[in-house]
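Aim 2 progress. For Endonuclease/exonuclease/phosphatase family protein, the working sequence is reproduced below.
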Amino acid sequence: MTAGQLRVVSWNIREGVPVRDPGGTVADALTEAVHRHGPDVLAVQEAPFDPDGGSPLLDAVAVAAGLPHRLYFPYSPAMHLAGGRAGLALLGREPWSEGVRSLLPNPGLRRTTPDRELVTWEKGMLFGRQSLGGRQVWVGCVHLPPFHLFRTAPDDPSVRGVWTGLASFINALPAGPLVVCADLNSERRSLLMDRLPERPLRSAVTAGTSPIGMAVDDVLFGPEFLLRSSSVRFGFSDHALCAVTLELKP
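Predicted structure tokens for this construct:
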């Protein structure tokens, strides 16, 4: 990490279960993708965990990528790994001085398909704080429900509590520079940003990150930062990796 610069990679990795041939093991593919961008922070949505809350996959990537400082938050049954759990992870090059975790309100959506009964499981927020350029910076990892799977618009009244819960959590964080790495499952950034009038955020990612080209993933950042670069890259997951470089303003 150079003084005042923060390189972030955010990726929904689908519990490490590939939808595309990774050309080797998932651990190798994930490590290679991280190495390519050399991030100071890796934020992972749909992170895979074992029943005890450990993540051998992310532990291996953390060592290989030089990101030894880890915050984990498993909170729901895995969808793709029998007996496993899923959640969020933050891997950092620098130590985390603090970590906070919280579940989002569950809207209780249901949908019956020919194959199964779909219900919304818990989703959550994981934020860590670390030093950057002599200042304490918050970096968050967030995953919202897949509104589209339930044929529910992201601004439907039934899911309003998800957005207000996320905004309330962010508003309650101590003041300071803020970065939010998120799978929002929506292109409607205003559903969050309009609820943060005292803590404005900007979007770093506008390219499509889903299989149908929707920009559902993002790295949001506060006014203390300048955006230096932003790119997306598809790999083994059904979401694209988002790589962003930010720099603290003098």
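The two ends are 16 Å apart (CA to CA). This observation will guide construct design in the next reporting period.
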